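Researcher: Here's a chain I'd like modeled. Treat it as a single chain, no partners, no ligands.
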Amino acid sequence: MPQLPIHPEPRRATEAARLELTKLPPETRLIEVFARACELATEAIRVERVGVWLYIENKTALRCADLYEYSKNEHSTGALLRVAEFPVYFASLNIRKALPAEVAATDPRTAALAAAYMTPLGITSMLDAGIFVGAELVGVVCHEHAGPPREWTTEDRDFAGSMADLLALRIQAAEVTELKAALRNQEDRLVVVEKAEALEQMAAGLAHDFRNLLVVVMGNAELLALRDDLAPDARRLIEGLSAAADRGVDLANELLEFTTPSNHQSTVLNLADATGEFLPVLKAAIGATCTVNYKRPARVGHVLIDKNQFTRVLLNLSVNARDAQPNGGEIRITVAPVRLSAGTDAPGNYIMLEVRDHGVGMDTKTRRRAFEPFFTTKKNGTGVGLAIVRRVVDRAGGMVRIESQPGRGTAVQAFFPRVGASSGETTEHRVLPDQY
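Model: Modeled as a single isolated chain. Structure tokens:
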């Protein structure tokens, strides 16, 4: 009697995903491993978004190594989540098993992320798994479900944990090559950051004492100005003294703002909407000498940043553009999704804010120093405005660049890493290494 042919039992999607990840060649770059793992996970357990986030800066923040959105078939990288902003969530990550949140907005472990992150992106349920290398937590794999709240099955949880373990093995294997180089760069960066923080603390103390002294000067100047027996030339001197003290207090306040650590909480933000809403305030601050040209794009995606910090960047750049055009002119503001080409410092998908003027421009030496704290070419400048811009963009995980030539105007471009892809067209963009 002939036997029936034996067909292999169909492999489960989760098993197939794990198997494909293990079959990636050992020489595959980590960033490619992360990207493929995210793609496989979205299909295996049918979620909209999967991201791999790794700790940086002495575990004070998570940086997105890769985030894949299934419906848009797009990857994003670079966004930052800071530990100080979401302490309960980060404390919950220090476990070896998966962290399931079926109604993530009310789960006590993830609720703090609801308004800032999940709700704007339509995320209702989360399934996170820590990436442990040995006993050390080095990152997390985040599975983010959009739609009605979802109950995570035992298979879902096991899959999340096993994918995290597989990524841990790849990270551990890469330490000899990629990670050691990355860690060296990170250590160099930390040395620079620590020196900058020490300088900021010293400047904050000096600014505070300086402001207090000036308040005394201003108070005495006001008392003197009330006297009726002052000679006209003495009154003019007192008015000049009072004006100088006022300017000194403004400078001290700007220094304190620059040197005081930000306690703002980042949130998912549509930069096109935020720019449009801020436009009336911006036009009032610019004044009548310059016109502001902003055409709101239809769709640009989302970034993770504090709204007030973003509008401060927009205001500082626009005021600089106005000052660069003393006889008036146009300030052109652009917000657009861009893809930085390979060969740039950090290729990938970003949302770009560009503020362009047709003013005096900068030579190469000035352009290279433009973001240094306290460096300025303005007669009454403080050198703080662009330094604040750079710090805000850095804290969002982005980068800022300048295109400028003497007599041909300036364009400052701030690139913010996405946490949500746009539905519109993304423009290919190339930034030369010396444009900063």
